[in-house]
Specification:
With 429 residues, the protein is an all-alpha fold. It has a single domain, classed as Growth Hormone, Chain: A. It is 82% helix and 0% strand. It is built from 17 helices and no strands. The chain is globular, with a radius of gyration of 22 Å.
């Protein structure tokens, strides 16, 4: 089993890791621009809500359906090679789409196909990068790295839409897509010259082919999570939180328009406040590193984030500033929830199992989003949008409090070695 010990002994880990991280960050900017441009093109060309929801579902399919099996492959194949091939495939798909735009042969189904393959590439790349991080970054710095990730995501949330809108005014669709192809080079080049540790994998006990081996590895991953109560507990918490957060922010336009009587400008203020809060939370987490027990940071973040939901839920129609303050608070403290959880997974899950665990998380989160939307719609119609925010606040507050009283969750990091030993002694059927 591979460990993290080598990174602790090398002062150059920051150079090696952040050369890759920085390249990926620049590539993400291009990807966000493409995503915005494609969705806006579908909006203006079709004006169809069905087309937009179909595009969203097409983007979710690889994560929901293939994600867990992708994780098994990530744990067996070279993670460096997976990231290189995934980045190259996304760039190739985008380049083909740019050419189709240039010769005016784009149709809605070609956008669906491009979104599917781009999502598939991301589905391989993300767990490969996340699971490689734990082998490149010393454990004591994992929370800070996750803080940097949250800061990056918050920044992208703020700049991608206005920058995409600006570029649509001055560039053609093929020009915007070409930006993403070029930005992919910033992700690919550092990977070519940087060594990425690879965990040792257990030899397959299966006598069948690749599909049988992948299925067996998938079952081992499920058993790994199921047999570890603390890990299972925080994963369930993460999935439920994702189920309530996604609908909450999808309902913000209705809240701003119907309750506060606002326009697109006011909606922009509310959404920008969340992005600014996310950046601030990420900066704080990067500098501070969180409590020594990472899970305490997450639980405290859950408790304090509930204040933001309660502010939005109780804000009178004349005080939009309370809703803006609420999304700002949520942005700060969701960073404190998410960053340490990912750091915990990177620090405690066996490196050879991380691909499967991370894709299980992604698959579950992707599946929870439409489920939450299905539930939130009728609730908002029947009881009002603010009711959903009120319920969300109570869920975040409850999770944060009860977590302190569940030893398996509170001591997840201390119990990680014991769990790893027990898992390694189990036969892999």
């Amino acid at each position: 089993m591979a460990t993290q010990t080598t990174t602790e002994d090398h002062k150059s880990w920051k150079v090696r890791f952040f050369s890759i991280w920085g390249g990926q960050a620049l590539s993400l900017i291009g990807s966000q621009l493409v995503q915005f441009a494609l969705i806006w093109w579908l909006t203006t060309e079709t004006g169809s809500a069905t087309v937009l929801t179909t595009a969203t579902l097409v983007g979710l399919l690889p994560s929901v359906v293939l994600g867990p099996f992708v994780g098994a492959l990530v744990d067996r194949w070279s993670r460096k090679r997976i990231m290189l091939l995934a980045d190259a495939m996304i760039a190739l798909v985008t380049g083909i789409l740019a050419y189709l735009y240039a010769i005016d042969l784009v149709q809605v189904w070609t956008i669906y196909l491009a979104l599917f393959f781009r999502s598939l590439g991301t589905g391989f790349h993300r767990p490969a990068m996340s699971s490689s991080t734990s082998l490149m970054v010393p454990k004591k710095h994992l929370t800070r790295v996750q803080g940097a990730n949250q800061t990056l995501q918050g920044g992208l949330n703020i700049i991608s839409a206005p920058l995409g809108a600006l570029l649509l005014e001055v560039l053609s669709m093929s020009g915007i897509l070409s930006i993403d192809v070029l930005s992919a080079l910033f992700a690919i080049v550092p990977l070519l010259f940087t060594a990425i540790p690879q965990p040792k994998t257990q030899p397959s006990q299966s006598s069948g082919g690749l599909l049988t081996m992948v299925w067996d590895d998938f079952k081992i991953g499920l058993r790994y999570v199921g047999n570890w109560p603390g890990l299972l507990g925080i994963l369930i918490m993460a999935l439920v939180i994702n189920m309530i957060i996604t609908p909450a922010f999808s309902l913000l336009p209705l809240l701003v328009k119907n309750h506060f009587g606002g326009s697109a400008l006011e909606l922009g203020w509310v959404e920008s406040a969340f992005g600014i809060g996310t950046i601030l939370g990420g900066v704080i987490l990067s500098a501070w590193g969180g409590f020594r027990k990472r899970i305490v940071t997450s639980l405290a973040g859950s408790i304090f984030s509930s204040l933001g939901f309660f502010l939005i839920a109780t804000a009178p129609s004349s005080l939009l500033v309370l809703a803006i303050s609420g999304t700002f608070i949520i942005g700060i403290f969701l960073t404190m929830v998410n960053g340490p959880i990912f750091a915990i997974l990177q620090a405690t899950v066996d490196p050879g199992m991380q691909g499967r665990v991370f894709t299980l998380v992604d698959s579950g989160a992707s599946a929870m989003s439409p489920l939450g939307l299905i539930i939130a719609g009728p609730v908002a119609e029947f009881a009002g949008v603010q009711t959903w925010f009120l319920a969300s606040g109570f869920i975040m507050l409850t999770f944060g409090i009860i977590g302190f009283f569940i030893p398996a969750i509170l001591n997840i990091e201390r119990n990680s070695k014991k769990n790893t030993t027990e898992q390694s002694q189990e036969p892999s059927s």
